[in-house]
Amino acid sequence: MATNVEVEKSATENSVSLLRRFTKRVQGSGVLPRVRSIRYSARAISENVKRKKTLKVIRRRAEVAKLVRLGKMVENVRTRR
Questions:
Q1: In the Cβ-directed half-sphere of 1, how many Cα atoms lie within 13 Å?
Q2: Which of 25, 31, 24 is CA-nearest to residue 1?
Q3: Any residues with CB less than 8 A from the CB of 75 and at least 6 apart, and which?
């Protein structure tokens, strides 16, 4: 939903009043509260990115398992506290 706010300068209007009129129009349109509300929200991760991350984790786990079997890496055993 794109909301374009547009003002045109009249022949007798100076820049300060034009800027003030534009600011009032932007505030009245509700664009700023909407933009500020979504400013820090994260985008949803796409299916392709999820798939890539999952494949990366699977490959890394397989590599670690292989190194543990060969004795080149110590298995990290987690203990509960």
A1: 5
A2: 31
A3: 68
Q: Is the pTM here over 0.85, yes or no?
A: no
Pick the closest to residue 9 from 22, 18, 19, 21 (CA basis). 18
pLDDT in tens, 13-55: 999 999 999 999 988 888 888 888 888 888 899 999 999 999 9
DSSP 16-30: HHHHHHHHHHHHHHT
46-70 exposure pattern, b = at least 16 Cβ within 10 A, e = fewer:
eeeeeeeeeeeeeeeeeeeeeeeee
DSSP 44: P
In this prediction, residue 53 carries a pLDDT of 97
Q: Is 3:35 a contact under the CB 8 Å cutoff?
A: no
Report CA 31 to chain centroid distance, whole Å: 19
